[in-house]
Amino acid sequence: MPKTYLTRRERFSSAHRLFQQELSDTENAQIYGQCSHPNWHGHNYELFVTVKGDVNPEIGFTLNLKTLSNIIKTYIIDKVDHKNLNLDVPFLKGKIPTTENLSIAIWDELAPHIKELGAELYKIKVQETENNFIEYFGEL
Ligand code: NI
Q1: pTM of the entire structure?
Q2: Active-site residue 27, yes or no?
Q3: N or C: at which end does the chain have fewer Cβ atoms within 10 angstroms?
Q4: Which residues share a beta bridge with 10?
């Protein structure tokens, strides 16, 4: 059956700080730059969720975009939008909220729900700034 790759974009705004507890502010600044600022800061993130699946021959869709959007909203956007990624998000607990860790955690949250729809999660892309983004394909 023909496979297509369907991508849904969602946006969210969150605060974070990148740091390791055991390091000084100066050491953290050397590693994480401005993202280690002790009093938090925010980003306007863009999340791209790409799903791979068969085109349903009767309907002509791979899956219903509204359903996909609802899943992303319920399991990700509602939990991260206008929240502090270091403090407020259960699925990021104990993780340094880099774009890398965010992408992997989002994959882990979404993959089972997309499987339930009869499709397969193919890629998570998280864009933190205009110039930087991370892509994760579920590879270990
Ligand atoms: Ni930052």
Answers
A1: 0.96
A2: no
A3: C
A4: 47
- Per the annotation, the verdict on 113 as an active-site residue is no
Instruction: Compute, in angstroms, the gap from residue 43 CA to the centroid of ligand 1.
Output: 6
Q: Please indicate whether residue 37 is annotated as part of the active site.
A: no
CB 11 within 8 A of CB 72: no
Alpha-carbon distance 78 to 83, whole Å? 9
* Given 27, 41, 82, 100, the catalytic residue: 82
Task: Note the pLDDT tens digit of each residue in 26-83.
Answer: 999 999 999 999 999 999 999 999 999 999 999 999 999 999 999 999 999 999 999 9
For residue range 13-22, list pLDDT tens digits in order: 999 999 999 9
